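Why does residue order matter? Because the sequence determines the fold. Keep that principle in mind as you read this record.
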Amino acid sequence: MKKFFLFIVALYAVNAMATEGALSGKFSVSATKQVHFSKGNLQYDTVNAVWSFAAKQYDIIGNANMNGGQLGEVIDLFGFGTGDAPTKYTYNDEDYAEFHEWGANPISNGGNAADLWRTLTKDEWAYLFRSRTNAASLIGYALIGGRHGLVLLPDNWTLPEGASFYSITEKGLAWDDNWGSGAYLDENGGHLNDNDYTTEQWTQLETAGAVFLPLAGFRMYQGDNTRLEQINEIGFYRSSTAGNYVVVFQDEAIFPPYDNAIISRGGSVRLVHDYSPSTGIDDVQDNVQCTKVIRDGQIYILRGDKTYTVTGQEVK
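Structure:
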């Protein structure tokens, strides 16, 4: 009985760490995989070297990303693959040739352990926006608390009683293959206020699983000049795929993803946590003892002669 009790305690610790900071909605990013989004865009405290998620989905750092030509104390715009060097902001593309996962870092309000989160690939972003069931009907522009952005609704969405939502297709955007790798497009624009929510109305949708990607703009490099561009006008969200594929959306178009962006440009990062109804540890019902250990700053679960990460993946 004692061993079984230890197993349950270990499982509880794993599940608690894995879900802290994750929103409730489940989103298909391939035919076989679903994810939970983090509760806000990724931020980095340059003074204390601490990673965190924004407290609210519509929170952005904005102009405070820069202070007198230097990075601000807290930033939320990152060059490609800068999980190992978040303060890198050169304009040399060669400095961003290798991808380093942001989610490999402990996120202070996201479980605070390594390797709990990850960045979507370009194909996963594309599947989310284009290929999952009823994809276009689960996307809509919105204004929340003065912040423009894009709402993504989870799979199997049910609109809460008394709430409203207008999708991009209801508002006139249609898929067009002639723009790069394809885009949802309405050249007439005027969509940023398609859904106008108070913070209380948004909370109702968020509780039901909705995700909001704010238009946080981007950090631009031109020669030795660094500046911020189009805050509250454009969303510029990173993927983990080499070649700098990013999800770009603005008033009249959504590119999921766009494949011709400047790799050194500072963009938003929204991490995800893989959903699985059975993570490998969770479905075990015997009384084999499990122990939580820390190795090289990372948390692992020892079960018998096998070792698992805190998300339940076996370490080979």
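The helical segments are 2-19, 122-131, 199-207.
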